[in-house]
């Protein structure tokens, strides 16, 4: 592979790591500071809108820089959705805060209520994904959409595993407005879905890494696929943090403001 490709891939790897760690820390820091949430919500919304507009501008561009910017756009739009959720702005119907506990209903009803409790958030994610798809569906640069879709898939898998039961719930990060969601999380060593999730995430990571390292990959493709492969690996890493005997919050605790909100 040309030396320039290797440099681009190192840059894409660094960008992915920075976006994952710093982006998570930023969202958690904002959520912890209740007095700043309104202003932060507006600012993040404007930045997300700008990222949508930039996605449209980048759609026809296929240089490596366009891949990195598209990746950043996908991250920003995802981050706005996550922040809106954790701030309690876009979650689910208010009535779900007062529903009966699990033992009063069967598992299927409980699962349906768990989805209903975050239905608005899931709807916002679908709408954001469709918007990104519409902006680049017929264009060569679909990096923003691929980034968002990858994050969405990994998050759906993580949410299902948290609902079915894992060792580390990290529910102490949930603010008071979302305390009712704890009833839909289950603490147990493992669940039957987890091995399937890890297997599929590993396959996806390896496939993207293989595409990134292909001898005939262009600079644009190598940059895009390296960023996506890195993000997929980080999603896989986060899955393992759900079950390993470690405290996953140490990665962000200090920078996000010490103890959980």
The number of distinct helices, counting runs of at least 4 residues, comes to: 9
The value of Rg in angstroms is 19 Å
Mean pLDDT: 89
Q: What is the share of helical residues?
A: 55-70%
Task: Please indicate the percent range of residues in DSSP E strands (runs of 2 or more).
Answer: under 5%
N to C succession of SSEs? HHHHHHHHH
> How many angstroms separate the termini?
47 Å
Q: What is the total tally of β strands?
A: 0
Oligomeric state as shown:
single chain
Q: What gross morphology would you assign?
A: globular
Ranges with pLDDT <50 over ≥5 residues?
Answer: none
- Helix/strand-derived category reads mainly alpha
Biggest sheet, in brief? none
Overview of the molecule:
The model has no long low-confidence stretch (mean pLDDT 89). The protein is globular and about 55 Å long. It has 261 residues and is mainly α. Helix 5 (119-136) runs antiparallel to helix 6. The longest helix has 30 residues, at 3-32. It has helices at 3-32, 37-58, 64-86, 107-117, 119-136, 143-164, 193-212, 219-241, 253-256. 66% of the residues lie in helices and 0% in strands.
